[in-house]
Amino acid sequence: MKTDVSNRFIWFKGEILNVNDAKINVLAPTAQFGLNVFEGIPCYWNDEKKQLYAFRLHDHYERLLKSARLLQLDCPYTEEDMKKALIDVVIANEYSENLSVRQTLFVDGFGSWGSEGPVDMFVAPIPKGKTGSEYNKKGLNCCVTSWTRINDNSLSPRIKCGANYINSRMGQREAIRNGYDTCIFLNEAGKVSEGPGSCFFMVKNDVLVTPPLTDSVLESITRDTVIKLAERIGMKIIERSINRTELYVCDEAFLCGSAMEITPVLSVDRYVINRGEVGRITNALHKEYLVATVSGTQEWNTPIY
Length: 305
Ligand SMILES: Cc1ncc(COP(=O)(O)O)c(C=O)c1O
Prior knowledge:
The protein is 26% helix and 29% strand. By secondary structure, it is of the alpha+beta class. It folds into two domains: 5-131, D-amino Acid Aminotransferase, Chain A, domain 1 (2-Layer Sandwich); 134-293, D-amino Acid Aminotransferase, subunit A, domain 2 (D-amino Acid Aminotransferase, Chain A, domain 2, Alpha-Beta Barrel), CATH 3.20.10.10. Strands 7, 8, 9, 10, 11, 12, 13 and 14 form an eight-stranded mixed β-sheet that branches. Strands 2-1-6-5-3-4-15 form a seven-stranded antiparallel β-sheet. A hairpin with a 3-residue loop joins strand 12 and strand 13. The radius of gyration is 19 Å and the shape is globular. The structure holds pyridoxal-5'-phosphate. It comes from Sphaerochaeta globosa (strain ATCC BAA-1886 / DSM 22777 / Buddy) (Spirochaeta sp. (strain Buddy)).
């Protein structure tokens, strides 16, 4: 049975339910304070093999558990429990298409923002074509947002928690209001950090450059994949701080993340990059990325069926 997004099965607190029956108490800290940690786990359908592959599943769970640990959440689930829940709910929905699986640990009950628990979990597979429009564009016109990226001493970007996305929201809303597709944040030191839901790379003189993880950047799995794929194809990669004006004169740029994969940046603050066309290196990396996600031949691919 193919289930539509608003009427599909979700794994919720140990049961597989229709999403409309998965209810959270309005006073729960997750509802009041965004007290949850989550992953968006991409799964790719390989039509030849009639198989769905979760991409870098172990790395997603490692990050999820790290986020929970940093927030001192009392997580009752192991990596094996989380993996089983994901597989069970995808199979229940009988999906044979690309997915983004939202796997969230949330603070339930009647506590407050300081509560350690009770922690529970939901796992919600979402067909990829139905994720946000900014993720489905062929290229992006970006601005540098006037909002500063959160930093490790306020709200650490290393923690993938719901509340962090309020900062992303401010930048994204400003970008849309002013006629851009999305934004790039600068950090407290005024250096380039990342997009609202993605990491940033640029190409200058055939070298791939990305900000270091200490420049207010999420420890992105796609960022790591891009670095590894670039190494495989013999590219030089540098992790270093990037100045704002470097964005305006780079040869190519792209944002990357599990949801947007590798999406070219065609302009920043109306400074056109690569004549507004998708760059050769961006294209080559995206091709490598698609093979790595869907082939089923890599240690990164976990079969679901
Ligand atoms: C702020 C931010 N940066 C980067 C990323 C990309 O991370 P990943 O590649 O692990 O999806 C995301 C996506 O979740 C994000 O929200």
